[in-house]
């Protein structure tokens, strides 16, 4: 089975639209395509109880981000200052880019 498409990429600024962290903004750290999930910084924080290891002799309770479903986030447009839907457009050189449906801001460099 081919990996499904996800509408966000690593490094995008997104806003969570549903769930316990609704309204939170952050940068996408990782995209897990086969599970259609994304990891957003400072969103969906979970506590992990870790044993002491050589790398981390202290051990203890660690906080880290957990993945959330990609359908629960929308790309945040800085020009519109709100979460927006995206469209696709071809540039003059033939490159396909993602754009804001409201204002036409280009998300891909």
UniProtKB/TrEMBL annotation:
The keyword RNA-binding applies. One of its GO terms (cellular component) is ribonucleoprotein complex. Gene3D superfamilies: 2.30.30.30. HAMAP family: Ribosomal_uL24_B. GO terms for biological process: translation. One of the proteins that surrounds the polypeptide exit tunnel on the outside of the subunit. One of two assembly initiator proteins, it binds directly to the 5'-end of the 23S rRNA, where it nucleates assembly of the 50S subunit. NCBIfam families: rplX_bact. Pfam families: KOW, ribosomal_L24. InterPro entries: KOW, Rib_uL2_dom2, Ribosomal_uL24, Ribosomal_uL24_C, Ribosomal_uL24_CS, Ribosomal_uL24_KOW, Translation_prot_SH3-like_sf. GO terms for molecular function: rRNA binding; structural constituent of ribosome. Residues 7-34 form the KOW domain. Part of the 50S ribosomal subunit. The gene is rplX. This is Large ribosomal subunit protein uL24. Keywords: Ribonucleoprotein, Ribosomal protein, RNA-binding, rRNA-binding. PROSITE patterns: RIBOSOMAL_L24. Belongs to the universal ribosomal protein uL24 family. The keyword rRNA-binding applies.
């Amino acid at each position: 089975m081919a990996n499904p498409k996800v509408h966000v990429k690593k490094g995008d600024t997104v806003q969570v639209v549903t769930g316990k962290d609704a309204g939170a903004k952050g940068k996408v750290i990782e995209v897990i395509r086969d599970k259609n999930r994304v990891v957003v910084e400072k969103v969906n924080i979970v506590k992990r109880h870790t044993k002491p290891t050589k790398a981390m002799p202290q051990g203890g309770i660690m906080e880290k981000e957990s993945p959330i479903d990609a359908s629960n986030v929308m790309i945040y447009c800085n020009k519109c200052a709100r979460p927006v839907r995206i469209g696709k457009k071809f540039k003059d050189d033939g490159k396909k880019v993602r754009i804001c449906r409201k204002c036409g801001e280009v998300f891909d460099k």
